[in-house]
Amino acid sequence: MTQFNESELTNAVIRSFDDTPNPRAKFLLQELVKSLHDYVSKTNLTFEEWDYAIDFLTRTGHKCTDIRQEFILLSDVLGVSMLVDAVNHRDRGGATETTVLGPFYVGEHKVTPHGTDISPHNLTGEKMFVESRVTDNNGKPLAGVPVDVWHADDDGLYDSQKPNYDSIGASGRARFITDSDGRFTFRTILPCSYPIPTDGPVGEMIVKTNRHPMRPAHVHFLVNAKGYEPLITHVFIGGDKYLDSDVVFGVKDELVARVEKRSDAATPDGKPVAAPWHLMTYEFHLKPGGGLAPKPLGTQAEEPA
Length: 305
What we know:
Helix content is 24%, strand content 19%. Strand 7 and strand 8 form a beta hairpin. The protein is globular and about 80 Å long. It is an alpha+beta fold. The strands form three sheets. The protein has a five-stranded mixed beta sheet, with no helix packed on it.
């Protein structure tokens, strides 16, 4: 007869999942039990510590809304998001490196013309012009590809974090469609480094463990071409002091762009601009394949890429 004690309990719980119909689900659950039980045994976890952990996870769930996902933030700061990303993109084959989606992807409402200023309400940030191109691994341009972009403003906030988001609408985010040469351009402001939200349980953990909450300045990109793997990535601003200590561990050398400070009277498309302004250029290379692109928070349906 099995004794549900420290020496026999783990195997009993593992066996309880033996009849799980889905083989993958069975494997994941049994491995999870092994890891959790091993953690409890190795650390001699106390009742008080386990109660705190349950309360922490409960508060994490309560902090989630349709436009804020505290569990994604928790996954990010523990490095789990980047580890999941890494094991699913082990062989890039020359394609652009991937990184975390982050908790502020909310989707786009309409296609935006090339050259549009996606931060028209921001009057304090220095202007930046972005020239980009999407190709396959051999440099062939990919036309008609939807590209979502989003970034924080010069206060370090995303539009969806602001109380007037529903009335003002999108700012610092847009969707573009690549032209016949795979190119797209837009205007915005130079992003700055910023802290992750620290008003929830994840921020509490960061503060109590003496970690800084900062992310280096970056622009998010989601490139979703039919016949290719969806590309979720950032382009980071070169020279940012937090590149080597990103709180969510999202930086890769290939994703750091050299952003030039310019004093020209016009941007590359010939439109006038007040100096100083900044020029970011970056080319994305896509890997053949398929997969599902992420959907905005609060939605359930997913469509093949």
